[in-house]
Automatic annotation (TrEMBL):
Protein name: 3-dehydroquinate synthase
Pathway: Metabolic intermediate biosynthesis; chorismate biosynthesis; chorismate from D-erythrose 4-phosphate and phosphoenolpyruvate: step 2/7
Gene3D superfamilies listed in its UniProt record: 3.40.50.1970, Dehydroquinate synthase-like - alpha domain (1.20.1090.10)
Function: Catalyzes the conversion of 3-deoxy-D-arabino-heptulosonate 7-phosphate (DAHP) to dehydroquinate (DHQ).
NCBIfam families per UniProt: aroB
UniProt keyword annotation of Repeat present: no
Gene Ontology molecular function, alphabetical: 3-dehydroquinate synthase activity; metal ion binding; nucleotide binding
Naturally occurring in which organism (per UniProt): Alkalihalophilus marmarensis DSM 21297
Record-linked InterPro entries: Dehydroquinate_synthase (IPR050071), DHQ_synth_AroB (IPR016037), DHQ_synth_fam (IPR030963), DHQS/DOIS_N (IPR030960), DHQS_C (IPR056179)
EC primary class: lyase
Single GO cellular component term: cytoplasm
Family: Belongs to the sugar phosphate cyclases superfamily. Dehydroquinate synthase family.
Binding positions for Zn(2+) per the UniProt entry: E185, H248, H265
């Protein structure tokens, strides 16, 4: 079993990575200081419920204090309405401060269930059981949140899990679009912190069909390791944790303006990363391997252009809703070189100029 250790000021915990771990979830929690749990609430979505809930429940010796709540699959479940229903359900079944909430699903479920756990009775323990590649990023680090219309993850908290249990077998039921969504976050970690890891990915990954359990473990240990280093140094995003938002300022704007679900999160972030690379070239007067990255990502099925129908003005207005905006300037995560991220406050004019060019011309070699 592969283990990544996460250490923050508020909590230390482990990410355990191995095929088949869903069958031993109860035993893993019992061994990680949750033997005193009075009850369990498993929050999952309809799709994951149908695939895996029986496997998970079979590992509990007694099920009289194990409750399951399923919500609709997709970003629409990260809403106040669903959040309130889950809080009311927790109260109805008598969850107390010794209870454990289990997030069984992808990033949406992790964010939603984590925010329920963070706020029910001012905080009860929770365990992340990610079922997507995308959730390798969101399940680690303690960011939990729900959305408002037009603003993603705007209502939330920093609340660390007790344990992250990553059963790589569950990833093999994912459609290719979900592989793309999650892999964008893996690539992000290379760009901001680890050039060698980025080069390894570019050399190794030519198709998602090669993602067997052994390869996934190796890749996940490295990618989560980058996240662990950043979160350990800056748990509440006072400094370098903001680097993890590389590609997300424009990516979130694209998601919000298109409507959540039109592009997957990672597909939108991939466009945002290419834009951030081009902006980095402009700001620092450098040359980055943008064309090479575009070719590689397109080979894997990504579209690297801003989706049609969106205007530069529309995207800029959405980008200014970003939590990192300060004093009217948008704080962008850029790179001085591959593997070295920096924060840079950028005014509207250069962003509008580059957005217009991206929409009209794409991200081709004529940019500079």
């Amino acid at each position: 079993m592969s283990v990544v250790h996460i250490s923050t000021k508020s909590k230390s915990y482990e990410v355990r990575i191995e095929p088949g771990l869903r069958h031993t979830l109860y035993n893993l929690m019992h061994a990680h200081k949750m033997s005193d749990a009075s009850s369990f609430l498993i929050i999952t979505d309809e799709h994951v419920h149908d695939l895996y809930i029986d496997d998970v429940l079979a590992g509990f010796p007694k099920q009289d204090h194990v409750y399951v709540e399923k919500v609709a699959s997709g970003e629409s479940s990260k809403s106040f309405e669903v959040y309130q229903k889950l809080q009311e359900r927790a109260l109805e079944i008598g969850l107390d401060r010794k209870s454990v909430i289990i997030a069984l699903g992808g990033g949406v479920i992790g964010d939603l269930a984590g925010f329920v756990a963070a706020t029910y009775m001012r905080g009860v323990r929770f365990v992340q059981v990610p079922t997507t590649l995308l959730a390798h990023d969101s399940s680690v680090g303690g960011k939990v949140a729900i959305n408002l219309p037009g603003a993603k993850n705007i209502v939330g908290a920093f609340f660390q899990p007790e344990l992250v249990i990553y059963d790589t077998e569950m990833l093999h039921s994912l459609p290719e679009r979900e592989w793309r969504s999650g892999f964008a976050e893996v690539v992000k970690h290379g760009f901001i912190r680890d050039r060698e890891f980025l080069d390894w990915l570019k050399g190794q990954v030519t198709s998602f069909e090669q993602f067997n359990d052994e390869f996934l473990k190796e890749m996940l240990v490295q990618s989560i390791g980058v996240k662990a280093d950043v979160v350990s140094a800056d748990e509440t995003e006072q400094g370098i944790r903001a680097y993890l938002n590389f590609g997300h300022t424009l990516g979130h704007a694209i998601e919000a303006e298109l409507g959540y679900g039109e592009l997957s999160h990672g597909e939108a972030v991939a466009v945002g990363m290419i834009f951030a690379l081009r902006l980095s070239e402009r700001v620092f007067q450098i040359e980055l391997p943008v064309k090479e990255t575009i070719t590689w990502l397109e080979t894997l099925g990504y579209s690297t252009n801003v989706p049609k129908g969106l205007s530069a003005e529309q995207l800029l207005a959405s980008m200014k809703k970003d939590k990192k905006t300060t004093g009217g300037l948008i704080r962008m995560v850029l790179v001085e070189e591959c593997g070295k991220a920096v924060l840079k406050d950028v005014a509207d004019e250069p962003l509008l100029d580059l957005l217009h060019k991206a929409i009209e011309e794409g991200f081709d070699d004529s940019w500079n």
